[in-house]
Amino acid sequence: MNIPYTVEERPDTGLSNGKFGIWLFLASEVMLFGALFSTYILLRTGAAEWPHGELSVTLGAINTVILISSSVTMVMAWASLKMNDWGKHRLYLIATFVLAGVFLVNKYFEYSEHLHAGEGPWHNTFLAIYFTLTGLHGLHILGGMVVMAYFIGPGAKMWKTSPAQFTNRIEATGLYWHFVDLVWIFLFPVLYLL
After folding, report:
1. CA angle at residue 129 from 134 to 191, to 5 degrees?
2. Which domains does the chain have, with CATH numbers?
């Protein structure tokens, strides 16, 4: 059975169902992170003093480069599919997955350093906000990795049966991934630099 608008654009929105759905989902994610960033602003402006220099700017900058690089590899994975180059697509998607894993490993070392020093979310308001925002962001990274793992593994066979639909799904995954990277672009200066 062929479901309408899985590949074609809908006449009312100009988007396929998958792309329309991911944009609606990302709108809800913007509201979630927007509320958390607003909470941060209110807590920071209301605080008599705010800690500075508690986070490793070097590690945060390295993670920023890693995530920006992963956005580039995600775009290249999608572009390779558009050019019918399955091999390059697979290479770029695996590279995106690996970069996401490296980001989480770096975050693990950063978390463990704070937790071993007794500086958990209970330590002060800044660390509570830090662990909440970066923890939620890390869960989004993990979710993106699960989706990528599916398309690297069992979901890859869709390319043989329905290449246009598979390409649309990779594009939707890329939109989600770029959103996750964009959130980090805001988290890095807010938490590490200001």
Report:
1. 65
2. 55-193 (1.20.120.80)
